[in-house]
Amino acid sequence: MRILGIDPGLAHFGVALLEVDEDGGRSVVDMMVFNTTKDPDAHSVAEDTSRRAQEITRAILSWIGDNDPWTTPFCKAAAERYSAPRISTGRGQTAIKGVEFLNRAWGIVDTLLAIWTAERDGFELFQPTPKEIKAGVAHKGASKAQVQAELMATFGPRNTTGILRKHGVKGGDHEHAFDALGAAVVSVPGDSGRLFR
Question: What average pLDDT does range 72-81 have in this prediction?
């Protein structure tokens, strides 16, 4: 079984493909971060975010095609869940843009799910929260750095940061792929509590 971990974002969209064998063993098939940048010539935020969402969607579909996860008997996705930013006085415009970016990022997930659900029966989406991922991978209240360290210790640098370096992903962007990997790991069927003991 393969599980696709997703860390939705418009500037940085992290993905990780986790394989789980019949004995429960886990291995990383691939990890990647897709980036987009703001177009200073765009006429509106909506126009720019739409373009960026389309770029990411095309890139992810190509990446998925390269890894061909649909050859396995069952597959599901796990997307890290976030709450929409609160709009507050003095920061309203920034918050509104944040909501737009978040909506576009989840629009990418919705588009991908529509394609994958049509291709495979029984395809599921799990949405663990950041707190659930931290508690499942490391411990309650763990930092992002601690979660990343736990994942690296479990799968090894060669199968995590080594993969990202091979793809040319800059070090500062690695956290998005690790967030995606964490989402996949805590969504393995039958697991409860801490995954790594």
Answer: 66
